[in-house]
Amino acid sequence: MRSVPTTSLDLSDPAVAADPYPFFAAERAQHPVAWHEGTQRWLTFSHATVGAVQRDRRLGRLWTDKEPASYLEPFNLLHRNQMMENEPPVHTRLRRPVASAFSRGHVERLRPRVREIAAGLLDEVGDGVFDVVGAYAEPLPVLVIAELLGVPRSHVDDLRDWSQAIVRMYEVAPSQQVVDDAVRASVDFAALVRDLVAVRRRTPADDLVTDLAATELSDDEVVAAVVLLLNAGHEASVNVFGNGLVAMLRRGLRPGADPAVCVEEMLRFDSALQLFERTATEAVEVGSGEQAVVVEPGQRIAALLGAANRDPAVFEDADEFRVDRERNPHLAFGVGVHFCLGAPLARMELAESLQALFARMPDITLAGEPESRGTFVLRGFHRVPVTGR
Q1: Which residues of 87-102 are buried (b: 16+ CB within 10 A; e: fewer)?
Q2: What confidence score (pLDDT) does residue 1 get?
Q3: I need a labelling partner for 287 at 20 to 30 A (CA). Which of 53, 63, 101, 181 fits?
Q4: Could you give the dihedral angle defined by the CA atoms of residues 344, 345, 348 and 351, in that order, rounded to the nearest 10 degrees?
Q5: Cβ(303)–Cβ(297) under 8 Å?
Q6: Does the bond joining 362 to the residue before it have cis omega, within 30 degrees of 0?
Q7: Torsions phi, psi for 66 (to 5 deg)
């Protein structure tokens, strides 16, 4: 009987969080997928296996309430009713009402406003050293998604704080402080959205909250959708921008002739989302030939997106940052039914904000060591000091 490939990779290790790619490379050289006894799940390391996990409908997003369920009910409520945590037909029903707002045509109509916001934020940074994440990369997508939804600008700082508290719960081993912060943020976030939905039902406006409030979605589902869109609508953009910019500045690189091409490399090179988990609803073979494994019903399998995006079998010189990389089939936004709904908006925001920054500050450089968030699942920087003048 053939032995099952195993891995002892500790995804909560600070060294892995600091730079996971050498660890991924070592694992990938041994196996494209392996069993992790510590967390009782499979981990995938190659582009082929990560893509297969995301495409196979027998490997689904099956939400299980976090324990203790009574204490964590505010957090669980927001996720139990999210499209990202459900499979069709529930996923389809939850996704359909918001899909049109993120169509390419609608996103293109937002482009002038994104340029306006970017210019205004750059006007405010002044001369000398500034934190490009806190002053620019973070507020821009928050302002954009808040305007799209119809959330008052006065709550932008709250949205940033609540979002960061909630997404820290996605890490491998969240502390009790992280759990407590996430519960408080979930309560406050949901209360704001419920109040806003009630206002929009009395006084409709030209925004997505008004549109959602008029659908067949329940109140809990509308709240969950709005919170998901506010969180996902800026977390990826912030972290991709920060990760990619740091990689470029450390190498003395500039965006190149086409900022959109550079954005794709930012998405690939240092993925903001590193891990996306699925659960088998029936026995599924993952991998091929002698390296294939069978994921049994009920077993979990994690798609390690950052590992896939550095696979040398797919990407030439995978550990190099190439601003003009032509062939770039990265998996940063996922594939299949859970492909990121906000990908067109994120791509447009990233291209516009990148172009605006380098047009305003062509000589921008790091002005100190960037401060990492120290997290693995959602990888990014808390602070990136730069100077551009």
Answers
A1: beeebeebbebbeebb
A2: 46
A3: 63
A4: -110
A5: no
A6: no
A7: -70, 145
| Tokens standing for residue 214 | 């008029």
Q: What is the dihedral of CA 171, 176, 181, 183, to 10 degrees?
A: 90
Contact 161, 186 (CB under 8 A): no
Beta-bridge mates of residue 387: 129, 365
pLDDT at 389: 67
C-beta separation of 47 from 331 below 8 A: yes
Catalytic residue among 237, 271, 353, 372: 237
pLDDT at 104: 64
Per-residue pLDDT at 100:
76
Residue among 350, 342, 163 nearest 241 (CA): 350
Token pair 């600091």 is at which residue? 18
Which of 279, 275, 276, 300 is closest to 59 using CA atoms? Answer: 279
| Residue 14, both tokens | 């600070």
| Identified catalytic residue from 235, 264, 265, 352 | 235
Please tell me whether the overall predicted TM-score, pTM, comes out greater than 0.85 for this model: yes
Residue 122 CA to residue 309 CA, distance in Å, equals 31
Of the residues 232, 280, 302, 307, only one is catalytic, namely 232
What DSSP line would sit under 32-76, residue for residue?
A: SEEEETTTTEEEE-SHHHHHHHHH-TTEE------SSTTTTHHHH
Active-site annotation holds for 349: yes
Nearest Cα to 102, choosing from 351, 346, 344, 353?
A: 344
Backbone angles phi, psi at 383, to 5 degrees: -150, 135
Q: Could you confirm whether 171 is annotated as catalytic?
A: no
Write down the H helix ranges in 90-218.
90-99, 104-125, 132, 139-149, 156-167, 176-202, 208-213
Active site residue 235: yes
Q: What is the mean pLDDT of each run of 10 residues along the chain (389 residues)?
A: 85 94 97 94 97 95 93 95 92 88 79 96 91 95 90 88 92 92 96 93 91 90 90 86 98 95 98 94 93 95 97 98 96 90 92 96 96 93 92
